[in-house]
Design brief:
single chain, mainly alpha
Length: 121
């Protein structure tokens, strides 16, 4: 009976690892198709549709920097709180992994600052 349980777990792992990305791609395709159909129907009725504004590279860098830095601080804070509550100093090693997205987020902030300076000069 133990071999059957291992087989089912393996099958479930394969199905989920392939099924979830496929479901995400299908959902993305359907949403994009529905938006296109909606735009086409509006154009057929004669309604003018404003185009979506292009987001500047500076704004993308700033947004990515904010998200990465806040996520890293939250990750490090969570593991720091767990280390304090459980009195396990080894948990701080897990909190150190938050330094990776923190460094990437700071890099995005530097990119944002340099891009803004280039645009002004």
């Amino acid at each position: 009976m133990g071999d059957v349980g291992v087989g089912i777990v393996g099958l479930a792992a394969v199905v989920l690892s392939l099924g979830i990305p496929m479901a995400g791609m299908y959902t993305y395709y359907r949403v994009k198709k529905l938006r296109a159909d909606e735009r086409m129907a509006a154009l057929a009725r004669g309604v003018t549709i404003p185009f979506e504004t292009e987001v500047s590279p500076e704004a993308r860098s700033r947004k990515a920097g904010i998200l990465l830095v806040c996520g890293a601080l939250g990750f490090m804070g969570t593991f720091g709180a767990i280390a304090g509550i459980e009195h396990e100093p080894d948990t701080w090693a897990a909190a150190a992994f938050g330094l990776i997205p923190l460094a990437v987020g700071i890099g995005y902030f530097i990119d944002f600052t340099l891009s803004r300076r280039e645009a002004h000069s």
